[in-house]
Amino acid sequence: MDETNDNIKPENEELNEENQGIEHEDAKIYEYFEAEIESNKPNFTKTLTNLYELTKIDRELAEIDEEKGDLPFRIESLKEKIAVLEKHLEEDKTKLKNFEAEEKTLLKENKGLDEKTSKYDESKYKAKSNKEYDEITKQIDAMLESIQKNEARIKELKGYQENLVKGILEMSRNFEELKNELKDDISHLNSLNKQFEEEEVDLTEKRKTILENLDENLMSLYERINGSMKGEATAIVRKGNCSGCYNSVPPQREIEIRMAENVFTCQSCGRILIDETLIANL
Ligand SMILES: [Zn+2]
To answer: How far apart are CA 91 and CA 266, in angstroms?
Structure first.
């Protein structure tokens, strides 16, 4: 028995090896065709799971943005306000300087006219004729008129200056307040940036890697949706509903989404739809 078996064994083994060989070849061919068939069928499973991962990253980035709140926006608007105020301040300071200079000139002019009037007044009595007297009087009158005109203008200028000084004081106070506010906001944002820096760099890197592997059209589709709904560009289809807007997905479309035959967006909210079974093992 043992002997016989031993004799048969090699034969059988040989036979088996041969058979196995054929089977192996057949299997290879079969697998090859299967693979061919598979690759001909559009399958977006990998793309969709990538988009899902991308959404998770963007949600984390959105949360960081939320932590920072409206600080970046506030900083920008404070900078604008400060720039506008600074311009006004400079303009008003220049105006004030010009008014002061004009006042100084007029005061000097009036001082000269005063002196001249006194002199003329004295010479009036030394006039040799009525004509000369009248002439001097006329000149004195003209000078007095100039003095009066100048005084009126000086009074006007003083009013302007007073208002400008008040305005400049108020604006300077406001300017300082805004600058301090800006300083506080910047330092607050800086500390938040520092806190999230590593996380943001890490998330941005991961984001870049996924985006690089995406088709250009899909990438722009995703970015467009993410632009208006940061961290919510994809939605899960669960029990026939879009998890983003809770509207129902037509049954036929639901099947196509489950088969990952293409990238579909929600008809109601525009989010990219992913069947829940596709991300179940993530
Ligand atoms: Zn939706």
So the answer is: 55
